[in-house]
Amino acid sequence: MVVRVSKSRQLQIRISAEDKALIGARAESAGMDVSKWVLHQVLAPVEREFQALCRELASRPEARRFTFAELQDRFHRLTGSEFVRAVRYAPEARLPAFEANYLAAMVEQAAAIKGVRPPRWTIDVEALDWPWFASSLKSLRLYLLTHSPPPFRRRNLFIDSSVGQRV
């Protein structure tokens, strides 16, 4: 199924003839017209996918386990530069405290694994006021307290696995 989106707006920018030629050449080498190529550079598909999953976290709390699993899988598959592009902007959707913290911890953990800097927006997410444990079994709490990845512990989240791992 092909979805056609009506484009009713235009954006004009002033650039030099050399820059215009360079942009045209890059678009052609990518097999795209200039408009599509520029849009692809400014609004990368990986960024759009990340924002869509954030909207899902905000609007479907009953499905958050599946949405976090999808985010985890996507982060794992991305290269370092793709990951940086995907998460460079804070979620546009307003997330509840738990979801915001879990997402920020996932992003920080994935950044550490990929050897890139986490985006600045993760710093602005205030840690939970109360500890959250991935298991209700009291006998597992000490284990979770000592084995949770650092970005999760800093946010008062105590889990057993993260990006690239499954339990």
Describe the structure.
- The protein has 167 residues and is mainly alpha-helical.
- It has helices at residues 17-29, 34-42, 45-59, 64-77, 80-87, 97-114, 141-147, 150-154; strands spanning 132-133, 157-158.
- A two-stranded parallel ribbon has the order 1-2.
- Helix 1 crosses helix 2 and helix 3 runs antiparallel to helix 4.
- The radius of gyration is 20 Å and the shape is elongated.
Helix proportion? 40-55%
Helix/strand class: mainly alpha
Largest sheet: 2 strands, parallel
> Helix and strand succession?
HHHHHHEHHE
Low-confidence spans: none
Shape: elongated
Strand content: under 5%
Q: Biggest sheet: strands side by side, in what order?
A: 1-2
User: What number is the mean pLDDT?
Assistant: 87
Cα-based radius of gyration, to the nearest Å: 20 Å
The total beta strand count reads 2
Q: State the helix count.
A: 8
Distance between the termini: 36 Å
Helix/strand layout:
Elements: H1 17-29, H2 34-42, H3 45-59, H4 64-77, H5 80-87, H6 97-114, E1 132-133, H7 141-147, H8 150-154, E2 157-158
Parallel strand pairs: 1-2
Gist?
This protein has 167 residues and is an all-alpha fold.
Supply the key terms.
167 residues; mainly alpha; 8 helices; elongated
